[in-house]
Automatic annotation (TrEMBL):
InterPro entries: Aldolase_TIM, Alpga-gal_N_sf, Alpha-glycosidase_related, GH, Glyco_hydro_36. GO terms for biological process: carbohydrate catabolic process. SUPFAM superfamilies: (Trans)glycosidases. One of its GO terms (molecular function) is alpha-galactosidase activity. This is Alpha-galactosidase. The keyword Acetylation does not apply. It comes from Hominimerdicola aceti. Pfam families: Melibiase.
Amino acid sequence: MKRIEIYENGINIVFEITDENEAKLLHFSALPFDEAKTASYMGLKTFRPVEIQASGIDRPDERHGNKYIVTAPGWRMKFKDFRDVNNDYGRKLELVTFDEGTGLEAVSHYQFYTGTSVVRCWTTLTNKGSEVQTIEYMSSFALTGVEKEGLKKPEDKMKIWVCHNSWQRELQWQDYTLEQVGLASSAKPTEQRSSKVFACTNVGNWSAKEYIPMGVLENTEAGSVLFWQIEQNGSWHWELSDVGGHFYLQLSGPSEIESHWYKNLAPNESIESVKCAVGSVTGSFDKAMGELTKYRRKIRRRNKDNQRLAVIFNDYMNCLWGDPTAEKEFPLVDAAAEAGCEYFCIDAGWYADGFWWDEVGEWKESRKRFPNGVKEVADYIRKKGMIPGLWLEIEVMGIKCPLVDSVCDDSWFFTRHGKRVYDRSRYQLDFRNPKVRSHADEVIDRLVSEYGIGYIKMDYNIEPGIGTEQNCDSVGEGLWGHEKAYLEWLDGVFARHPDLIIENCSSGGLRMDYAMLSRYSIQSTSDQDDYKKYCTIAANSPTALCPEQSAIWAYPITSGDREEVVFNMINAMLLRIHQSGHLGNIDPERKALVKEAISVYKKIRADIKEAVPFWSLGLSKFSDDWVSLGLRNGNKAYLAVWRREGKSDTCVLPIDFLKGVDARVKCIYPDFSETPVEFSKATGNVSVKFDRPYMARLFEIEW
C-alpha cells in the first residue's frame, strides 16, 4: 500500500495505491484527512477516482440502478502511473489507470491554479487495445466520502445547493437536505446504499435552461464547503448519492442514459471529457463563491473588455423591442452618448423589412429600415464617441432565409430520422461543417470591416434537442462535436478580432457556462422586463459568473419617478451596465440620474473587476422584501441594497468581515439621498432605513 498526500492552495488531496494495485481517491477537502472516517463495510472499494462505462461488460455488486457507480471497466481499473508537475497555471497532478481487458487507459487530470482553492479536473481516455470500445459514460471528477467529516447523520449536517434557471427566472438558488431529495438514512451508517440518485442534468444545446451547471455541498457540522461547476456548453450531468456506507459526487458531460451520447473508441483513439472545476473551503457559501470568482478570472480569455468594463447601450429592453429603424436610432444615439455610454448596440430586426423571426441567416441590412444602410447609423454612433454594435444569432437559419434553398443542403443542419431539425421556425446550423464556419466567418468579418462593428450581441433562441445523426456514432456525439466546433470557431474570431466584444446571450441567461464564458467577456443574464424583479437576478448573478461579465439591464420607464430610475440603475451598478430605455423621452431630472449613475460606475469599475461577492442577507428570492449584494476588494466594499415591499422600513445587514473594524459607510448613489445609515463596529452590522417601497441605494464602505 502506498499513500500520496497533497496539500496545495488550501486543499488536501489523498490518493492510495492498494496492495491490489488499485488507485483510490480518499480525500478532497479543505479539512485535514482522518482515515477513520473512510470506514464502511466495503472498505475503500468504492473510493474510485474515475468511473468509465463501456458496452458489453458486467457491472457486478451494488444496487446501482442508473447511478454511475461500479461502472465497467471503471471498477476494475488498475494503477499505472502518477505524475506531479508544475506549469504556467500552478501544480498539476495526473493519475493514470489502466484496464487490461479492454486496453482502456484513463488519465485523471487535476490542475491547480495558484492563488485559489479550486482545481480544474478532467479525464483523457485512450484505447490502447486492439478492439473498438463503445464508451457510454466517463466521469470528469469522482469523489466518494463527501459526507464523512462530523458525527451527525448525513441528513442532519449536509446541505445541497442547486441553482435553478429558466427564462426570466434566472439564478434561483435553493438549498435542500439529503432527506428532502430522498436520500435519508435507512440502514446502518456504514452500510447505507440505495438505488436512489439525486442529479441535475442538462440535455441539449441550451446548457442552463433548467439549472446553472454548478452546485454546492455544505457540511454544516464540520464547517466545510465543496463546490463545483461543469464547463460545458451543452449536455452535462452531476449526481449525488450513496454507495457502500458513504455518499459520492460525480461530474460529467454527456452520457448515453441521460443525453443519448456514446462514442465508438477505435484502437489508438482518445477522447477527453468535459472540464469541470471543483473547490473546497472552510467557512461560508460566500467564501466558496469568492474562490470560484478568482478561478474564473484565471481561466478566462485575456481581453480589454474585462479590464475596462465598458458601458453598453442596447436599444431593445423597454425601448425599441426589436423594431429598429434609422429614424428611431439617431435620437437614441444622442441620448446614450449624453448619458455617458461607450458602446451602442442595435438589437434584433435590422436585417428584415418586417417580421424577422423566420428570415434570419443572411445578415444583410433592410434598406426599408435603414435607407442609407446600417453604416450610416454606425458612423453616427462613432461620431458621438461610442463604438457601434449589432445583434446576431449566428448558429441558426430561419426557414424563410433565402440561403436555405439557394446555398444550403442537409449537411449544413442538424438532422434526426433523416429530417432537418426545426425549432421555432429555425434550423440549427452544424458548426462541424466547414461551409457553415466559412459562412459565419464571412458574416463576422463583413460586419467588422464594412460597418466598423466593435460589439456583437450573439443571441441564441432555439433548443435543437438531443443532437444530430450526421457523421457521428450517436446523436449526442453529434451535438457535442458541434459544440466543440463552435468554441473553436469562436476562438478563431477572437484571434482575428481581439478587440471585438461579443456578448453571450441565449434568450437571456440560458447558456451561462464557463465553456462559453472562458471566451466571451460579457454575459446576458436575463430578458426580465420588470426592474423590481430584476434586482434578485442581479444580486445572485455573481454566483454563476464574474461581476465584470454580468450584463444587467437598466431601463428607466417613461412614466416612472426618480426612485424608479435609482432602483433601475442600482440593479446594474455593481456588475455591467446594460443601459436601455427611451432615455430621450424621460424628464431632465431622471435623465440626470442615469448620467450620474454611469459617472459613479466609471469611478468604481476598477474595483469591481477585482472584487469578490458577498451576500449579507443571503441569496435573493423574488419574494424577498429586501435584497442586497456586496463586492469586496481589499479594504473597500460596495453594498447595494434594495427594498421592494413589506411593512418594515429598516434593514440590518450583517457583514462578518467588518466585526471589530473601524469602518466608514456612505451613500455614493444617488447624490440626493438623505437615507439614514449606521454602522456597528461591535457586530459588523450596517443598518439602513428606506421610507418607502421600491427604493435602492448604493453604499461605499472603507476601513
